[in-house]
Design goal:
The C terminus is likely disordered. The chain is built from 4 helices and 4 strands. By secondary structure, it is mainly α. The two termini are 20 Å apart. Helix 1 packs across helix 3. It has a two-stranded antiparallel sheet. It has a two-stranded antiparallel sheet with strand order 3-4.
Length: 111
C-alpha cells in the first residue's frame, strides 16, 4: 500500500503487505496474541510489523496509528465504536465497526 497526498508535502509512505494486514487489525480490540493467531504469525512478528507501521506513520501508539491511517485515507470506518464500560451494570457496549482498506492511492506526509 502506498499513501501519498496529491501535493508535494512530504515523504511517501509505503507499507508492505504484511504491515497492511496488521494495520487493518489495529482498530479492533484484538490483543497482539489474538492478531498473531489470526494472521498465523508469532507475537514478535506482529509487534515488529506494528512498530514499522508506527514509524512509517510517524506515531507512537496504536490509537494514533488508526487515527492517522483514517486521516490519510488508508482505513475507512463504516460504523461507531465504544470502549468497554467501567461500570458493573454495563460490562461492554457492543457496536459493530468495520474498517476496510481504501483502494490504493498515494498520500504524502508533512513533517
Amino acid at each position: 500500500m502506498v499513501a501519498r497526498v496529491d501535493d508535494d508535502m512530504g515523504p511517501t509512505v509505503r507499507l508492505t503487505p504484511a504491515e497492511e494486514r496488521v494495520l487493518f487489525l489495529l482498530p479492533t480490540w484484538l490483543s497482539v496474541r489474538q492478531m498473531a493467531e489470526r494472521l498465523f504469525l508469532s507475537k514478535n512478528t506482529v509487534k515488529t510489523h506494528m512498530i514499522a507501521v508506527y514509524r512509517k506513520l510517524g506515531v507512537d501508539s496504536r490509537g494514533a496509528a488508526v487515527e492517522k491511517a483514517i486521516a490519510m485515507g488508508l482505513l475507512r470506518s463504516s460504523g461507531w465504536t465504544t470502549k468497554p464500560s467501567t461500570t458493573s451494570t454495563a460490562p461492554m457496549a457492543l457496536t459493530m465497526v468495520v474498517f476496510e482498506a481504501v483502494p490504493e492511492r498515494e498520500v504524502r506526509l508533512s513533517w
